[in-house]
Prior knowledge:
The chain is mostly beta strands. Helix content is about 10%, strand content about 50%. The protein contains two helices and ten strands. The strands form three sheets. Strands 1-2-3-4-5-10 form a six-stranded antiparallel β-sheet. The chain has a two-stranded antiparallel sheet with strand order 6-9. It has a two-stranded antiparallel ribbon with strand order 7-8.
Amino acid sequence: MVLGVEYREAEAQANPDSVLGPDVRGFNQSLPVGGVVDVSEFFLEAEVPLVENRPGMESLALNVAFRSSEYNTVGNTETFAVGLGWQIDDQFRVRGNFNRAVRAPNVGDLFQPLVNGFPGASDPCSSGPNGSFSAATVAATCTAAGVPVVGANFRAMPRWKLCSVVTRTSVLKRLTPTPLVWWQRRT
């Protein structure tokens, strides 16, 4: 059996200099970002032998694990695992596990400031494998993309296909841990 406690702290800081911010880093606005996530944990794991030294069963063991975590940002989380291991002989072993894990938000997830962005956008009717931008080509490309053409008035498109839109993005301020549950088997 294993018992333990753990404390971890993750800190991140990004401070753009006077040349890069708060104006532009690359092509987007750059603002200072930073924060700290700390977690205190308690955990235990045990392997309990159920059967040993029997014909066709060198060993059969139950494995259990539990972890309780207290995050300064999202509160308490709990994870666990239950498994069974069957050692048939010294060369062959079968294991199966059921697990519940948690992914808690990290510093970047929690503290990203609101910034401008300029992602590209394209018209699905103006691009594609057809090559030119005549009204007939635009109509064919739209039809191939699944855009309804009933009553549509297609016109020749200019030579540009890509435009940019202004966005304001940030992270959700109410992020919560994401639980993951899965079965696993190995031989």
